[in-house]
Amino acid sequence: MGRRERMVRFEEVGVLPEPGDNVAIASRRLEAGTEVELDGTTVTLPHTVLEGHRFVVTPTGTGDALTSWNTAFARASRDLVPGDYVCTPTSLAAVTARGVEGLPAEPSATNEPLDPYELDESALSFGAQVTSVEQPGTFLGYPRELGPAGTRNHVVLMATSSRSSGFVTELARRFDGAAAGDGVVPVAHTEGGEDDVPNNLHFLLATLAGFTLNPNVGAVLIVDTEGDVVSGRAIKDFMAEHGYPSIKVPHAFFTRKAGFEHDLTIAGALIEPWLPVVDAQQREEVPLADLKIALQCGGSDAFSGISANPLAGQVSAELIRHGGTAVLAETDELIGAEPYVLKNVRDLATAKKFLATIKSFKERVGWHGHTAEGNPSGGNVYRGLYNIVLKSIGAARKLPREVRLDHVIEYGEPLPGNGYIFMDSPGNDLESVAGQIGSGCNLIFFTTGNGSITNFPFVPTLKFVTTSARYERLHAEMDVDAGKYLTGTPMADLTADTFGLTIRVASGEKSAGERAGHSQVSIWRNWKQVGPVEGISITTDGRMSRKLTDLPAEDRDAPLDGLPHTGLTSDAKTSTELLRVDDRLVPEAVGLILPTSLCSGQIALRIAAQAELEKWAGNAVTRMVALPHTEGCGSSGGASEETFARIMLGYLLHPNTRMALLLEHGCEKTHNDYFRSRLVEAGADPSRFGWASIQADGGLDAVGEKVKDWFSSFDLTAPADERGDLGALTVGLEARGSFSDATAEAFALIGREIVGSGGSVVLSSRGALLAHDGFRTAAFGSADPVGPTVAHGQRLAAPGWHVMRMPGTDWMETATGFGATGVQQVLAHVAGGTLSAQRFVPVVEFSNDPETVATYGDDLDAVATGDAAEQARIGLDTIAAVASRRLVPKAVASGNVGFQITRGLLGTSM
User: Fold this and answer.
1) Which residues pair with 49 in a beta bridge?
2) Cβ distance 203 to 233 under 8 Å?
3) Which residues pair with 464 in a beta bridge?
4) What pTM value is reported for the model?
5) In angstroms, rounded to a whole number, what is the distance separating the alpha carbons of residues 377 and 631?
6) Terminal-residue alpha carbon distance, the chain
7) What distances in angstroms separate CA 721 from CA 627, 656, 883, one per listed residue?
8) Beta pairing class for 292-297 and 443-448
9) What is the assigned CATH class of domain 723-898?
10) Do the domains 723-898 and 7-111 match in fold?
11) pLDDT band at 547 (very low <50, low <70, confident <90, very high)
12) What was the pLDDT predicted at 379?
């Protein structure tokens, strides 16, 4: 137990959200035994209360409501007296897992049930919007023919699907530093890459269409790949069908039809004439009514609803007085706050549409077996947001009581007018922001408790942090210290200062995120279920009817025994030069920086590039790799989380990984402590790995130094060359597009040699090879169906022929799953187009299809000619050349790389 503190006044250590609340928020950590002067009496705290957690200030009986902002968020489990620590089973488990001492043995409260909200029409207030100013203000922006002015002027290179994301990223890189207004930026994302029509198609098309028309876009290139479901033509048709105006800025639609380098040259020639046009455009004085603010919160804590969110709301109210617009979002982060949001609304129809949106979101989540209680992340709970009701009430404070809710719109739907608008979206920050940008927002207010560093490529972000201590720790990444309100600065003064900063940033002053050069895009990800499913779905009353282990194994992607199929083998051996690394023979020794969530992904990528350039690990590794992804926060738990964690461990424990460091953002659901426990469960020693935190270590520069120090602290011998054969490898075999019977047999022959030599072959359960009778016969001795031996991303229990379960057809998700099983190289036959490479696992592409060879020959690593035996020989020799590092796959060399983690059948954005 910690030391006993002197007596303190309540005002020094506690914050009451609103008069009438019966619990207060601790403004700093209070050890057990602390004496607090409260309403003239002395209260002794029986347990430790962490900063941001709550303690009782008014006696409360068993079963009575515990309130913040006069809203019930929990019920007392026993009679509670002033000073008692308020903790629910979830919050107590979260702080116990972090090793906090002085905690109670049992929780003192239970979560308030998420019963469906019943609208009381008599309680609605149909007031006027906040009054306007006599003289509306202005800012310096870029006038646009279509309407609102831009706060920035970018050349945007937009991928229509994940299949073109590597292309636009590399294309933008080749224009780094070009004189082009505010720069050339890519919009690379994870969606639309499957063979089938995605369930999020409408949202995806609306968002991409909105991106092309966003006022911050000075020119746009829309890039697709032949055969894309989500194509440039699909976007054109969507815009025409839904009455979008035509694109007025310089633009073009470009379809990839040839080699990567060839297409980069052609696309680059389209862009080059636009650069001087965009660069010549000047800022002009435009009305503040042209400002459209996206309101977001991420890494929230108990003070988000006290300082940062109210401040963002007050600045938004001031903007609305000048004729501007504010857009609230994150539907699931308003569940439980319905009475607050609807206290002041334009009309009954708007109130009903808001509630219908909430209901629809609950239903979609319920189809996948989840409720909104899965939204709060581990960081949220640890920092005092015990459940979704507390998180929602705090988030709703971005809507001031005096401001009227004017409109409710769908995700990415064009803004219907000025005022205060709610847009349907998940609580996932990046996915929600993308919808707001698609709707037309040209500036982002991002409030954060833990210090989220999120930014968007072509729209500036102003980050409001809730406490001064966190602002000081992360001052280089934050823009506004809202914590000043907690230490006495009047809200009116903070509002005036922040409103001034808003105008300056809208007029061109760089935000902290722009100065850091960090940004990323994630669009509302696809979901697999489109209606109730027996045995999986739950009702919208918030009551979970089944446990994860009760669900069908395939639906929850449960692990299998990991033992191989009995297949055919051969005695042939293809030799290759490998590396002796510690106790194993491998093709390479990788230094891995693994982000624990989406928000640390791009930072990990930048750090890895610097580590590679400066040789932080010396000669101990052959290359440095980072694996940015979209998971770990803002997505549902359960089966999806289990698959995600399994994949992450697969890369940490991969035979090619020699050194690995986990980089957390700091407020995610799957933080460093989460993965420490997962590694222990897997029988691995966490001390083997490095650990760094963007938020806890003090921001981007500080965490970069910590990562550098860790990789530089080892004195490992360089890997030694050693002769081996392909039996030392685990190889993924894949075929995309059509292929001949001879090619199918060739793949079987390749697999037979690798397995016969002692290695492993992994196939996708959804892949074209397993669907081919000839391949199955040549590989397994029978054309009978072959089922999975491992779940998606599950490590193999023994070498041999393996099949990995795949919940979808997206190529990059397939490649990512392959790598997590232990695959060290993928050999893919391609027809009708080529594939992106995976960041960790080399992808080798060859083809026997004449048309593919003629069109995409420059992207192929080998051409497969002759009969089955000859094609197999070519494939085996190419695998050996890559394994010996004599050949770098073309896709890797050109920068056409990616990484994407599946959410399975039950994962959904939250």
Assistant:
1) 30
2) no
3) 447, 480
4) 0.94
5) 12
6) 37
7) 27, 15, 12
8) parallel
9) alpha beta
10) no
11) low
12) 72
